[in-house]
Automatic annotation (TrEMBL):
Keywords attached to this entry: ATP-binding, Nucleotide-binding, Transport
SMART domains, sorted: AAA
Pfam families in the cross-refs: ABC_tran
UniProt key word Phosphoprotein: no
Protein name: Amino acid ABC transporter ATP-binding protein
Gene3D superfamilies per the UniProt record, alphabetical: P-loop containing nucleotide triphosphate hydrolases
Tree of life domain: Bacteria
Keyword Protease: no
Record-annotated ABC transporter domain positions: 19-253
Amino acid sequence: MTEPELAEHPSAEGGPAGVTITGLHKAYGDNEVLKGIDMSVRPGEVVCLIGASGSGKSTLLRCVNRLEDPNAGTITVGSFEATDPDVDLDAMRRHIGMVFQQFNLFPHLSVLENCTITPRRVLKQPKEDAEAEAMTQLRRVGLEELAQRRPDQLSGGQQQRVAIARALTMRPALMLFDEPTSALDPETVGDVLAIMRQLAEAGMTMIVVTHEMAFAREVADRVVFMDQGRVVEEGPAAEVIGDPQQPRTQDFLRRVLNPTDVDIRD
Ligand SMILES: Nc1ncnc2c1ncn2[C@@H]1O[C@H](COP(=O)(O)OP(=O)(O)O)[C@@H](O)[C@H]1O
Ligand SMILES: [Mg+2]
């Protein structure tokens, strides 16, 4: 989709939303998972969040749409104060699309039905309108011809593209991706990344947790490296990935970029 097209179809918020996170803390029992995160994303910006497993990336994303309740700190998403106890969570979540490693499609519904169920139930859209919008988004991800199929008749990459189309039917102002290609066969990863690149170019605000360093380097405006619940390094993608300054970032990238380069002291 080109930028003028996106302008014709603004998000429900009226445009891409920015995100501001200040002093975010989250613990599970005495396991402190987020230890004071400060991070901001400008409207239309693409930020890739990288870091080792267990560093708190998913928890951070889940705090943004309040699937988790932070212990301290503030988060704003566009005009919503996500951490305000009185925030209208349903209204806020309508503006936030989330795509997970597992696609979470309804197996008994067609691709088209998977894409219309939320607009029909939550936005009370008439069936025809919801289907027209779903077809627009399925076309955008190149799957309009598979609209009548069931999820188990699609490849993993196609299912993930349906999950993206489904999120886009709500005209989100922010998209959160949590390792969207980690569960895919290698040959279908590229198609999903291509859709995400298109979405970035169309001006969507995106926070993307990923291990795809080539994608991050090419598409992200900024890269944030997290380790053990803290932001250790952030900056333009070319700097953080191409010329990391912190030893922990260097170590992480060495492992990710050279998986067979095993240090026998590990
Ligand atoms: N619902 C939960 N209950 C208890 N501990 C959790 C829960 N979710 C995550 N954790 C713990 O929080 C830490 C960070 O997890 P996570 O945010 O999933 O990291 P990442 O996405 O970077 O791999 C891990 O130690 C994990 O075990
Ligand atoms: Mg995770």
